[in-house]
Amino acid sequence: MAAGTTVDHLTETYRAHYRSLLGLAALLLDDTASCEDVVQEAFIRVHSARGRVREPEKTLAYLRQTVVNLSRSALRRRILGLKLLSKPMPDMASAEEGAYDLLERDQLIKAMRGLQRRQREVLVLRYFADMTEAQVAQTLGISLGSVKAYGSRGIAALRVAMEAPA
């Protein structure tokens, strides 16, 4: 048998971390209807590349990075679509939308969406995904100093946004 993440390990990772990865996608994307698609696609890609994940304990980190990258791609496609269409299509309601409504009502989520993309990514990975600054730097492919700078500026912007009247 080839070294790498096994299907059984990936299945257990799915059971244990699906909801947290879905929450990660919900914080990165401002269209919650596509969050499940992003997370499912991340698991499919990790499953296809499981032989390259040599150490099974790194599977979750690989999944997180894949969710972040797929979220970026989804936002890029949406922006391109809006440029190409004269009138944007209305959001389609999904069965899961009710579950996300509670997240969207939270003032912190609204403030997070007002942050720069990189600030939001750093804060989500650092505090929601409970990653160390070094793990965030590795996941995003930036320096440790950049993680600290984006985090500091993001927290400062959140303080201002949270103090502003709603």
Structure report:
GO terms for molecular function: DNA binding; sigma factor activity. Belongs to the sigma-70 factor family. ECF subfamily. Keywords: DNA-binding, Sigma factor, Transcription, Transcription regulation. The chain is an all-alpha fold and 166 residues long. The chain folds into 2 domains: 1-97, Rna Polymerase Sigma Factor, Chain: A, CATH 1.10.1740; 106-166, Arc Repressor Mutant, subunit A (Orthogonal Bundle), CATH 1.10.10.10. Helix content is 71%, strand content 0%. The protein is built from 8 helices and no strands. Helix 6 crosses helix 7 and helix 7 crosses helix 8. The chain is globular, with a radius of gyration of 17 Å. The termini are far apart. The model has no long low-confidence stretch (mean pLDDT 81).
Number of helices: 8
Q: Please report the first level of CATH classification, the CATH class of the largest domain.
A: Mainly Alpha
Helical content stands at over 70%
Order of helices and strands: HHHHHHHH
Give the overall pLDDT as a whole number: 81
Total strand count, please?
0
Query: How many independent structural domains?
Result: 2
- Major sheet, described briefly? none
Radius of gyration: 17 Å
Distance between the termini: 57 Å
Q: Which structural class do you get from the secondary structure elements?
A: mainly alpha
Share of β-strand residues: under 5%
Within the CATH hierarchy, at the fold level, what is the topology of the largest domain? Rna Polymerase Sigma Factor, Chain: A
What is the global morphology? globular
CATH architecture of the largest domain: Orthogonal Bundle
Spans of at least 5 consecutive residues with low confidence = none
Keywords: DNA-binding, Sigma factor, Transcription, Transcription regulation
Organism: Streptomyces angustmyceticus
GO biological process, one term: DNA-templated transcription initiation
GO molecular function: DNA binding; sigma factor activity
